[in-house]
């Protein structure tokens, strides 16, 4: 077998073929071609990527918030290889299962918060969230309240790209392009820096949770089925909840009897210093979609963890649930996820993020708060946002929202660091295996990026 990297094609040839035939996700197709095509990533090791020109890049995003154990873990390749030889595929539909799927369900139940005793497998976070919608509607129909259809999400929440998942989410650009399905409503996220800066953060947290109650009243309490949110809103600009937010959200959900869906696709598997963001923020979800860090991105796999309230109804009253994916519980993906969980646990990676590297990462990043264009640094564990601002003293944001963020993002790429910009917030979500030295290197690069950005915009 010959790897494609051994081919004689030049980088220019690869780019030309790619531009001619490959439509990239979340990409301006023509814009990318006009820029000369996509950067070709050829290999990776630890937290570093290497492109076809040999440039070494520190991956401050762990791929797409997913490569939690870092790149180049041979054990994961070996787990896939062994499983492929033994049983490369079989489905879990027709009263069959496989050992990796069964064992993974057991381990997920053990790791996730109490009361989530069942797993339903999917191939991606989007599919997991489509599954969540199906389960929520089925639950209420079986409970004799089929009119409870509306799921409330949050503006700038991201739950995936299928039509159902983007309706659940609150990304206006996606809604504008494709419309949204009926049965979804959205509230503002608890973005203290943008929406509550002059208020006490704890009081603002209670107020922001109150927006859920307002929306329930507006929709009609008997029509609301569930509320969905990420523990920390990731792709929507790293919105870190005030300390009072989640307790109050849970109080409102209980008051109206609605289901609580906590989307752990980003926060799961150690990112916040606990196995799940729900443990960090003391949340008790009824349904919990998982993906990304579950296999560290080495295989596409996702799951919905189902709490007893929903599972008991689906199991005891439901009959056949007409839902599933060809790759639900794919044995190779499950085998890789199991090995990934073993690495995270046995190497103490999650514990280290909570007690050592996470606090160090956050401390070092907060040193950047003195920079003239940095308004706020927020986050926990190995997830952080750096919000840029035009005038700190007057708390004035940049006029053309997103422009300065994009300039910073481009400087970052040009200086060997992958950092994302969401509007004017720079986002970091690196592999969980970063050492103090890696963190120092990352922070140094971010400061350089901030200096260059301030220079360009000054
Ligand atoms: N949920 C959250 C919180 C996400 O961040 C994402 C992807 O970024 C998704 C769901 C969708 O996952 P996928 O891209 O695997 O469909």
From TrEMBL:
The record, for InterPro entries, names:
Aminotrans_3 (IPR005814), Aminotrans_3_PPA_site (IPR049704), PyrdxlP-dep_Trfase (IPR015424), PyrdxlP-dep_Trfase_major (IPR015421), PyrdxlP-dep_Trfase_small (IPR015422)
Instruction: Look up the record and name the cofactor or cofactors this protein needs.
Output: pyridoxal 5'-phosphate
Pfam family of the protein (one): Aminotran_3
Q: Where is the signal peptide?
A: none
Coiled-coil positions:
none
Keyword Transferase annotated: yes
The record's Gene Ontology cellular component field reads: cytosol
Q: Would the keyword Transferase be found if you checked this record's keyword annotation? A: yes
Q: Which UniProt keywords apply?
A: Aminotransferase, Pyridoxal phosphate, Pyruvate, Transferase
Question: GO molecular-function annotation terms?
Answer: pyridoxal phosphate binding; transaminase activity
SUPFAM superfamilies reported in the protein's UniProt record: PLP-dependent transferases
Lineage, top-rank taxon, reads Bacteria
What protein family is recorded? Belongs to the class-III pyridoxal-phosphate-dependent aminotransferase family.
Its name, as the record gives it, is Omega-amino acid--pyruvate aminotransferase
The protein's organism comes out as Caenispirillum salinarum AK4
